[in-house]
């Protein structure tokens, strides 16, 4: 999954490659964001959980536009198979999944790259720029 990674330098020294500005790396939660919120303690509900159709439409459009779609979930590794089956059954297009996100919310992501956080609040749509540091879902 190269996605047009570009070589980068800082102070004349090669650093990790970067994506061009027009390609975004979307890290998307699953439970309560693209579908029904199912806790890890009830995995029997994962296979038939409700899906949010507006999430499928929006995420697939981003995928088709060339953005990178990775589901970043608090589900544990033992739930990978049922999770991937559910995503594919419901028609989500994606590049990968990262399992084992810490549970409980209140996230603070520290990185040497630009990170934009968007809080899901009931409707999954394209993002709109509010200012230079915050993006929100369009109502």
Structure overview:
With 139 residues, the chain is of the alpha/beta class. The protein has one domain (25-137): HAD superfamily/HAD-like (Rossmann fold), CATH 3.40.50.1000. 16% of the residues lie in helices and 21% in strands. The chain is built from two helices and seven strands; from the N terminus they run βββαβαβββ. The strands form three sheets. It has a three-stranded parallel beta sheet. Strands 1-2 form a two-stranded antiparallel sheet. Strands 6-7 form a two-stranded antiparallel sheet. Helix 2 (80-89) links the parallel strand 4 (68-72) and strand 5. The longest helix has 12 residues, at 53-64. It is globular. 13% of the residues are buried. The model has no long low-confidence stretch (mean pLDDT 88).
Helicity range: 10-25%
Q: What spatial order of strands do you see in the largest sheet? A: 3-4-5
At CATH level 2, the architecture is 3-Layer(aba) Sandwich
Radius of gyration: 16 Å
SSE ordering: EEEHEHEEE
| Poorly predicted spans | none
How many DSSP H or I helices? 2
User: Describe the biggest sheet?
Assistant: 3 strands, parallel
CATH class descriptor: Alpha Beta
Number of domains: 1
CATH topology: Rossmann fold
Roughly how many Å apart are the termini? 32 Å
Number of strands: 7
CATH superfamily label: HAD superfamily/HAD-like
Mean pLDDT: 88
Protein structure class: alpha/beta
């Amino acid at each position: 999954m190269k996605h047009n990674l570009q070589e980068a330098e800082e102070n004349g020294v090669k650093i990790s490659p970067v994506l061009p500005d027009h390609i975004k790396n979307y890290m998307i939660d699953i439970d309560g964001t693209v579908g029904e919120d199912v806790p890890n303690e009830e995995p029997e509900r994962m296979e038939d959980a409700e899906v949010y159709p507006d999430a499928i439409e929006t995420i697939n459009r981003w995928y088709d536009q060339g953005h990178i779609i990775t589901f970043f979930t608090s589900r544990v590794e033992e739930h990978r198979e049922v999770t991937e089956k559910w995503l594919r059954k419901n028609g989500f297009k994606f590049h990968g999944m990262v399992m084992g996100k810490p549970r409980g919310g209140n996230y603070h992501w520290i990185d040497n790259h630009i990170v934009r956080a968007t809080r899901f609040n009931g409707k999954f749509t394209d993002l709109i720029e509010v200012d230079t540091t915050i993006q929100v879902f369009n109502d």
